[in-house]
Each structure stands twice: as structure tokens, then as C-alpha cells.
Design brief:
The protein has two domains: about 10-80, Arc Repressor Mutant, subunit A (Orthogonal Bundle); about 95-230, Four Helix Bundle (Hemerythrin (Met), subunit A). It contains ten helices and two strands. It has a two-stranded antiparallel ribbon. Residues about 5-10 and about 80-90 have low confidence and may be disordered. It is mainly alpha-helical and about 240 residues long. The chain starts with 10 loop residues before the first helix and ends in an 8-residue tail after the last helix. A hairpin with a 3-residue loop joins β1 and β2.
Length: about 240
Amino acid sequence: MPIQALEPRRLYRQIADQIAALIRRGEFKPGSRLPPERDLAKQLGVSRPSVREALIALEVEGFVEVRIGSGVYVTSAGSRRAGGRVGKAALPPDSGPFELIEARRLVESECAAQAARYASAAQMRRMKAALATMRTDGRRNVVPLEGDQRFHECVADASGNSALAMLVRTLWAQRTGPLFLRLEHHFDTPALWSAAIAEHQAILAAIESRDPGAARAAMRRHLDMAARRFKVSFNRN
């Protein structure tokens, strides 16, 4: 038997695989509600955000349906996608959403600080244009993700470091992956995007003021708030 490469298994993936195995064995019947998120976290000895990421992965794969304010329900076997797990196709080996936000917080905060030092007038105009796109989409009730991504990439470009800019684009490729977008689908609202747009404005203002410390703090606050927005429980209690 030839040696096969080992695939690293992230914590949320281990949790998802364990719950999927229980569903396949009939421990959780179609239509039944899974235990509350906090109970699953306690039984597995992991954090609630890790459980939340696992449940979102299972929803993308067709094992469960997430109903915000009610809980997570097992789907009928016929509604699951072929082969159960779709990890190598629809779900590339992305980081979990909360890992991704933390990585972006570390990297993009420094990009913002560097942008406050080095951004050219043209680069700041591009940031303003991206922010204007976000506002326009928000007024049209369109999720302003395109302008959001463009804004963050403009900030990274303005850092003057091509390696950082490449890293930010790599992180954004995962930010727009199925796992993160599904989590966002459940928790995003026009009010939350309005708050996010105001946070982007604060980042831009600090960069325009040539204040690296303020720019770093504004980006950190934005991504801290993003993480907080996604840490709402699926359950009522």
C-alpha cells in the first residue's frame, strides 16, 4: 500500500466529522434538533465558536439546517449531497471563520498602520471609491462585499509591502469561501453592515490623518466587531 499524504484536520472539522458520524449512525434522526451549542461545546470540551464553525460546515454539506433563534436540525438523508462530505470540492481546506478573522486582525491592522505612513493620494482615492461602493450597495440593500474586499485590498496595497498585500488577498480568498459566507448569511443585517461601513470610515480617516496608531486601532476594532457579530448563538438560550 503506497504511503499517502496526511491531511491536517482543523478542530472545527474534527467536530463536524464526529457529529456527521452520529447522524449517519442514526443517533440524531432526520428532523430532530441537535443539542444546544453550549451543551455540545461542554460535551466535546471545546469552545462554542468552534462548535458554531462545525455546524456551519455541516449545513454547507447538507447534514443540518440552521434556524437562527430556534436551533440546528438534522436534514432528511435524501437532501444530503453525494458522498456526505464535500471537503475537497465545495469546501477547500479553509481555516475556520474565527481563525480567519484573527489572522486578518493581526495582518491588516499593521497594513493600516503602514498605509497611514505611505499611502499615496491616488491610493487614498481608491479607498474612498471602495467605501462609496459599499455605501451605494448598502442603500440598495445589496450586501456590500465587493466594496468591502476592494477597500481592504487597497489598504494592503497602500502599506507599500507587496508580500503583505499578497497575504491579505490570500486571506480574502478564504473570506469569500462557502464556510464564511454561510456564517455571514445567518447573522448579517443591514444594520450590521451600516455599522461596518462606519468602521471603514474610521479606518480611512486615520489613514488620511497620517496617524499609524489610530489606523491600527481602527482596523483592530473593526475586525473585533466583525468577530463579535458572528458570535451570536444559534439558539434562543
